[in-house]
Fold this sequence. Notes:
Structural class: mainly beta
Bound molecules: manganese (II) ion
Distance between the termini: 29 Å
Radius of gyration: 19 Å
Low-confidence stretches: none
Order of helices and strands: EEEEEEEEEEEEEEEEEEEEEEEEEH
Strand content: 35-45%
Strand order of the largest sheet: 2-21-18-23-16-15-14
Amino acid sequence: MSVTERDPVLVESGPTAPTGPGVPGEPELLLPREVPLGGPRAMLVQRSLPQRRRSLIGAWCFLDHYGPDDVSQRGMRVPGHPHTGLQTVTWLFEGEVEHRDTTGAVAVVRPGEMNLMTAGLGVAHSEYSTPGTTRVHGAQLWVALPDGAATGNRAFEHYVPPLLRVAGAEVRVFLGEWLGATGGPRTFTRLFGAEVVLRAGTEWRVPVDARDEIGVLVDRGVVAVEGVTTRRSQLVALPPGRTELELRAEPGEDARVLVLGGEPFASPIVMWWNFVGRDHDDIVRARADWQRQVDAAKAGEPADGRFGPHPASWGGTVLPAPELPTVRLKPRS
Ligand code: MN
């Protein structure tokens, strides 16, 4: 998915100060903002990360939640656009999306199947709902890459996590290691992401690593997250210090949540548009490198370079980068 806000949110972030051992910080309820994905009659998504109060949970640096949306009249359409310094994690609850990228991968993303694209120094992809898809419902997540991996090779991986039953809930750990699940693609920092379905009116307590920051996003139902009432598209962020996570689904409707966690991200980052970099100059270079490929594509020439060769089917239909802000982007340290 691509950031298409008129004024792309600038996020400058340094390492989070960890809370002392055994002293869990207070849960923080983060309300999403509604953002159009771009174009006329654009699909609206609920963006929970980044925001001014918090830019990261572990290495998780971006979270869009959307749907269920009727796309029978006009499909979800996100033309070719670039990424740097991050991994995109696509997780659907409903619908099918065709993914194409500059690793050469063509994949149909389906519910319960995780698709992971690693940008490294640069990758570009497009996402279109399939012709038979009338409703889309899912989450688009980004993981910031640490030094080394952030300038590494591009890659695309597909993973179908097993369905686990843990303490009465249905759990799918789609990335990283949690609750004994270890089967997914490798990650570059210690982190995990999982879908959890809780029966209405039940309480769920499971272990978490006290070093981790944890986030819980509600997709369906109403859930008390460490006692904080949390509704659809809302995110609760929990600082390090907990050894147990407590969720309670309110009576009436089964609840579905995403649980994200990981060690606090150690490197300063600058996020602008679809790029994650270490400083302003990283972003300026990424933008210029992408615009060269956009210009080639629009001129009908072969578009190749830092972001890899465009799939032939894209033609000139790719997203140009917005103008850079006039201020210099500075990471906090
Ligand atoms: Mn994208």
